[in-house]
Amino acid sequence: MPLFWMKSPMSNHKSGFIAIVGRPNVGKSTLLNALIGEKVSIMSPKPQTTRNRIMGVLTKDDYQMIFVDTPGMHKGKDLLNITIDKIAVSALSDVDVVLFVTDTVKGTAEDHIIEYFKGLSVPVFLVINKIDTMKGRSGIDEVILSYINSFPFEGVIPISATEHTHLDKLESLVLPHLTEGPLYFPKEMKSDQSEDMMMSELIREKILFHTEQEVPHAVAVVIESLAENAEMNTIDVSALILVERPTQKQILIGKGGEKIKKIGTEARIEINKLLHTKIHLTLWVKVKKDWRNRPSDLRALGYGE
Ligand SMILES: Nc1nc2c(ncn2[C@@H]2O[C@H](COP(=O)(O)OP(=O)(O)O)[C@@H](O)[C@H]2O)c(=O)[nH]1
Ligand SMILES: [Mg+2]
Questions:
Q1: DSSP type of residue 71
Q2: Atom of ligand 1 nearest to the CA of 161
Q3: Which of 143, 77, 147 has the alpha carbon at shortest distance from 114?
């Protein structure tokens, strides 16, 4: 403690970082978006939807909560998967609270995630999502009972991210664990991602929606250029979609270019909303063999540190 000391004028202001972790597909990104009230992280029923650590910022009068969405933790073999897993684990360090999200009765797939908590000194809440699909109270109890002995959780929070059920409760349970702190992000900022990253993610979300099997895993999207078109009063966006094989390119383009057109139209609507202006979107598909296993490609695409 210094000799001369005074409470700062911000002394009632609290802030902190809250990690959202769990198996793929339990609804982590949906929860983040519901808490922030805006789409900051893309969502889909496909695994590997979230590949990077994404922050969503919730600013209220007396506090700022920074939620850190993570890729689902699962054991994968290629370098992209290993990188994704590392990102998820490193998100656990340097946070004030951890939200462990699940949606089912405990299975062996989750054991390795709980192991990571044992080395932490911060509170971990058990968040049971998708209660809208569970059979009443007994269904929720069944999930709680399956977890309660595996780790000394700080508390249990049953929610539905899609229905926005108990999200206010979640906020009020997390708040006491934040300490006095500054605004880490400006009040109006909702995410730490760049506009380019958000645009490429929205395009990837539409690709995930319209393709099956190996294509979602083999796809990466980069924004190549962004230019104001004064004449048309639009912003012209050009994006490159990378795949690993010519067959994947064919699937993505579809018969007579039908599929890529649909993806483009849907992505354009979302990017319009994001930028609050009309955009003109051009998509290019290119084959880049084995990009998922090349460290330089992964870095260039924004995956990893
Ligand atoms: N019924 C229901 N579905 C949900 C809920 N939250 C998420 N989902 C769905 O679960 C799927 C995976 O969601 P996502 O947020 O991408 O999961 P993540 O991989 O954990 O980030 C999506 O299809 C969501 O619509 C919920 O509260 N109720
Ligand atoms: Mg996700």
A1: P
A2: 27
A3: 147
Contacts of 140 (CB under 8 A, 6+ apart): 128, 131, 134, 158
Structural domains of the chain, with CATH: 14-180 (3.40.50.300), 195-300 (3.30.300.20)
Residue bearing the CA closest to ligand 1, atom 14: 27
Tell me the pLDDT tens digit for each residue of 153-188: 999 999 999 999 999 999 999 999 999 999 999 998
CA of 168 to the centre of ligand 2 (A): 21
pLDDT at 203: 96
124 forms beta bridges with 98
Ligand 1 atom, smallest distance to 159 CA = 27
This prediction has a pTM of 0.84
The label of the residue with tokens 């083999």 reads: 218
Residue 150 CB less than 6 A away from ligand 1: no
Locate 95 and state its tokens.
Answer: 């946070």
